[in-house]
Structure formats: structure tokens, C-alpha cells
Write a structure and sequence with these properties.
The chain is mostly helical and 178 residues long. It has one domain. The protein contains eight helices and no strands. 21% of the residues are buried. It catalyses: a 1-O-(1Z-alkenyl)-sn-glycero-3-phosphoethanolamine + H2O = a 2,3-saturated aldehyde + sn-glycero-3-phosphoethanolamine; a 1-O-(1Z-alkenyl)-sn-glycero-3-phosphocholine + H2O = a 2,3-saturated aldehyde + sn-glycerol 3-phosphocholine.
């Protein structure tokens, strides 16, 4: 098994485009009240650079690349979600479209991560955090949003649980320390 430091040395340089495009997004800080195709592109660039990262690691239709294909699909839907959120102030329906795109992305990530190892204590602890977050948000939610945000919080919880359950104990301890 590779150590976290070895993985970082191997993968880190390949993530430079992601970090650069993220910096560009925050440096430009485009006006949210005047959305344009350019602002949508700038907002989507970090996620699109992660798509390139996944593609550069190899991709095929074989079972060996199922995980990568699902992650790539999740990233594509995440980029679409970002694009829809650019126009949420013009028409509220774009917010719903964005949520749907992100929900599809999260389902793809959850399926990618799988359910082995199960690690129920991690799931239970994270569920407590998710329930607390929803309890804080709930009073400000009205109508259909109270249900949609509840479903979205559940998807975020599932995705985080499944992602963290895959971490090795050593790696998990390192993340907590950092």
C-alpha cells in the first residue's frame, strides 16, 4: 500500500491545473448579478480540470475503469450544476436544475465508493452531523425546499460516509491531525 506522502508526491503535480483554475475563479470573482457564458466557464474550470485529471489516468469501458467512469460522470454533473447556479438569480428554476445536477453527481460518487467496508460507526457519527446541519437549515426552508434540501443533505451524508469509510485508518488519523 502506498503511503499518503507517496500518493501526494505522485498525484500532487497532476492537480496543479485544478489549483490554478480555482485561484483564477477566486481572483476574477465574477459578478453574480450579471451571469455570462464566460462566468459559467470560469466557474466550471476547476471541475473540468479534475475531469482531465481523471481522463489522464486512463479510461476504458472495461470493468477495471468502472470507478473512474463513475467519478468522471459525477464531475461532469457537478460542472453542469455549477453552470446552472450561475443563472439562479435570474430564474429560480436554475437553482433547482443545479441541485438536480449535483444530486446526480452525488449518487454517482456514492455508487463509485461502494458500501464495503461498511464502517457503521463512521456513518452514524456523520449522520449526527448531517441531522444537526439540517436542523439548523430547516427553519429557513419553505415549501418544496424543506424536502429537497433534506434529500440533498442525505445525499451529502451518504457520499461523505462512503468516501470516509474507504479511507485507511492511518490516512484517517492523518486527516484528523491536519
Amino acid at each position: 500500500m502506498n503511503s499518503p506522502v507517496a500518493v501526494l508526491k505522485s498525484v500532487g503535480p497532476k492537480l496543479v491545473p485544478f489549483f490554478k483554475t480555482t485561484c483564477i475563479y477566486y481572483i476574477l470573482w465574477l459578478d453574480a448579478d450579471k451571469p455570462t457564458l464566460f462566468s459559467a466557464l470560469i466557474k466550471c474550470l476547476p471541475v473540468l480540470s479534475l475531469c482531465v485529471f481523471v481522463l489522464l489516468h486512463g479510461m476504458s469501458l472495461s470493468d477495471m475503469h468502472t470507478y473512474a467512469r463513475r467519478i468522471l460522470g459525477g464531475l461532469v454533473f457537478s460542472a453542469l450544476g455549477d453552470a446552472f447556479l450561475i443563472w439562479q438569480h435570474i430564474d429560480g428554476i436554475y437553482f433547482i436544475y443545479g441541485m438536480v445536477m449535483f444530486a446526480i453527481a452525488h449518487v454517482l460518487y456514492i455508487v463509485s465508493f461502494g458500501f464495503r467496508p461498511l464502517r457503521l460507526p463512521v456513518g452514524a457519527a456523520l449522520f449526527g452531523v448531517a441531522a444537526g446541519m439540517y436542523a439548523v437549515l430547516y427553519p429557513g426552508l419553505h415549501g418544496v425546499y424543506s424536502v429537497l434540501v433534506g434529500v440533498y443533505v442525505l445525499l451529502l451524508w451518504l457520499m461523505l460516509w462512503r468516501g470516509m469509510a474507504r479511507l485507511q485508518v492511518r490516512t484517517f488519523a492523518l486527516i484528523i491531525i491536519v
